[in-house]
Amino acid sequence: MISRRTFVLAFTAGASLAGxxxxxxxxxxxxxxxxFDTDNDGTVDLAEAKKAASALFDKLDRxxxxxxxxxxxARRLTQTELAAADPxxxxxxTxxxxxxxxxxxxxAADPxxxxxxxxxxxxxxxGQSLLRLLK
Length: 135
What we know:
single chain; Recoverin, domain 1; two-stranded antiparallel sheet; 4 strands; metal-binding; EF hand; EF_Hand_1_Ca_BS; repeat
């Protein structure tokens, strides 16, 4: 059973971390950049994002049928987003359809249109949406 003191200490620690979340978020996204940044330039470009997404697609495709269904996507896309990304309306995404969504989200996360994403851009709402498709 958890004591009141343990609860208060845990709550206080959580509140302290919440106040530090921008720094933690930046650090976390810097880690993602290092993971996806194969040319080590400190940013993620579209080719790097698609390479990561392609590898993830292969990992998620557990039944090896070349498509991802709602279950395999595991909350990476909402039902509405899946329907919009599924031009043949078969309830699944092929790798090309998945990579098209990655490209759309990459463009949305790149407001300066320089073709690369830095930690700040990955920390944006659009960047978070892209990261869900890469990790």
